[in-house]
Design brief:
By secondary structure, the chain is an alpha/beta fold. Helix content is 48%, strand content 16%. The chain has 10 helices and 9 strands. The strands form 2 sheets. A 6-stranded mixed sheet has the order 1-2-3-4-6-9, sandwiched between helices. Strand 3, helix 2 and strand 4 form a beta-alpha-beta unit. Helix 1 packs parallel to helix 2, helix 4 crosses helix 5 and helix 8 packs antiparallel against helix 9. The site of ligand LHQ has 23 residues, from helix 2 and strand 5.
Amino acid sequence: MFIEKELRGGLMIIRLNRPEKFNAFNRDMALQLQEALQQADKDVAVRGVMITGNGKAFSAGQDLGEVTGNNPMPFTKILKEHYNPIITLIRNLQKPVVAAVNGVAAGAGANIALCCDIVLASSNASFIQAFSKIGLIPDSGGTFFLPRLVGFQRASALALLGDKLNAEDAERMGLIYRVYDAAIFEKEAELLAQRLCAMPTRALALAKQALNNSAVNNLEQQLILEDELQLMASQTSDYREGVNAFLEKREPVFTGQ
Ligand code: LHQ
């Protein structure tokens, strides 16, 4: 299997598993990742997802062996059937998705990480919009997320130059949420992801939906959407539990419902 799944409590840990190829994506790996994300979305026992890489890298993006040689896979097939569904699945997943970037994240590998709800990185990690170095343009949502994360100027520079950005610089420019020293990274990333799993899952999903739409809505549309989604949040049992726990001066116990 090119994707490993492990359920720890409410957290589904998804590990990209082609370490000898720096977790570069071939078709099977892309389809297996889609399947794992779909399963995480459906399974009520799953309250959050963490994606990380086995070995030294997070992911080196597209397996360039698959697009070269005698029988190369057509580009549009790769985007339509591999990467675009992965990005859409992550953004629409009704649970928080954390990217735990353990090493280099390049090309589509970088952009899969950057579309996650919270991006954490090891001090060993780096981010490369490697596309321009081989004559391509950023895909897998790169041209959508990059300018929204770091502003147009930095997005342009990263996309055009394809420079390697280390984790500290990525954190400083707001590309990612947080970098941890490599020695404590795995533990801290899981702690944060587990924390999310104990939170009001429905409300997190609704917040995610609002943020997704904020990229395209104007203020008036966004205020209307917040009104609709807040009403839905207020009808969850986790909302009642949150308020009761506050009034009773105790810690809330959220069930995700
Ligand atoms: C790889 C790869 C790789 C195969 C490392 N493929 N083997 C969409 C539409 C359609 C087509 C094209 O793509 C896309 C989306 C994209 O993602 S385009 C961007 C594709 N990715 C790249 O261009 C990155 C290529 N890789 C690199 O630049 C370097 O390998 C990085 C910077 C990631 C790591 O460098 P190093 O730390 O020096 O490691 P390395 O280069 O020695 O790689 C380790 C092994 O992994 C090595 O295998 P080997 O058998 O020689 O030890 C590499 O061949 C293999 N590998 N990336 N994308």
